Amino acid sequence: MEGQRRAFLEDLLSTASPSGFETSGQRVWLDYVEEFADEVRTDDYGNAVAVVEGGDTEVALAGHGDEIGFMVRDIEESGAIRMTPIGGSDRTVSKGQHVEIHTDSGPVPGVVGQTAIHLRDRDDDSVDDISEQHVDIGVTDSEAAEELVERGDPITFDQTISELEGGRIAARGLDNRIGIWAAAEGLRRAAEDDVDATVYAVSTVQEELGLQGAKMVGFDLDPDAVVATDVTHATDAPGTPGEKSTGVELGEGPVVSRGSANHPNVVEAVRGAAEDDDIDIQLQATGSRTGTDADAFYTSRGGIPSLNLGVPNRYMHTPVEVLDLDDLDATADLLAGFALAADEWEFSVDV
User: Fold this and answer.
1) pLDDT at 121
2) Domain topology for 3-67+172-344
3) Which segments of 90-238 does DSSP mark as H helices, in order?
4) Which of these is catalytic: 207, 208, 252, 321?
5) How confident is the model at residue 178 (pLDDT cuts 50, 70, 90)?
6) Which residues pair with 314 in a beta bridge?
7) DSSP characters for 273-285?
8) 33: three-class secondary structure by DSSP
9) 72-157 adopts what CATH topology?
């Protein structure tokens, strides 16, 4: 991945964007797409849309810009800060982590306390709920804490981007900065190839809270088809329960979902684009729901033909999510290929 594209990804990953507090991350995304889009716009909740104008066929390439996190729930007399989760935060990975509390005056550093192993009951291996965990910002009483933070301030892990071997990286918030990176890059690459269709790139808000932004955008845009790019579980790491295995592997290409929200004609269009451009893909069964924005898009208005396109990701919803950059680059190419061929497809089933 070359310089400007990699810098864009790192800017997204370095900008905290917990659900309900996405403004800074959405600004990073908009600054990038403004360079090549014909129009950019946002709605009242911060959903962001970039448009490359073309013909009558309209397709959307979407991802969600928010991440999981925590929030200041209460401040105790000691100055300890109690948390509540934002989205599906994992209580088993939060203790002993560095965090940032994002206030109107700037970030306040802290740590999630963990009683030393020497002092714990060795026979008790239970994990406290997030509501029972606390953030230590170094103060000694509630008055000092309240001068720095307020109830309702969001909290994220303070995590750097780590370079792993083989073109892989580890970071917080790959879910789903990589989806909005791919949507933006898919739009740019389609524009460079003089796409005939009208193409929207979308960065939605509040996916982690129930696909809320996609419900707004799907109603507003009403495109002919939408591909929602999100992370999906790579189940090739040690420790994955056998019954949870999907066969999805890191480094083997983007993942095309089948079933439930995934419209068969959009599936075929994306598979056709992959074949035309010699892009390796993987298939995934989603018999009931995808758990992504595709589930909201496909029931918007009278129904929008939709697809969940996955990027393999290890250790989802932890501070050390792992991505293969080749998978991500191939995803952007696949989105562009889909957009370039979109006007050749009829996105409705033949009954």
Assistant:
1) 85
2) Aminopeptidase (3.40.630)
3) 142-146, 174-192, 212-221
4) 207
5) very high
6) 322
7) HHHHTT---EEEE
8) helix
9) Elongation Factor Tu (Ef-tu); domain 3 (2.40.30)
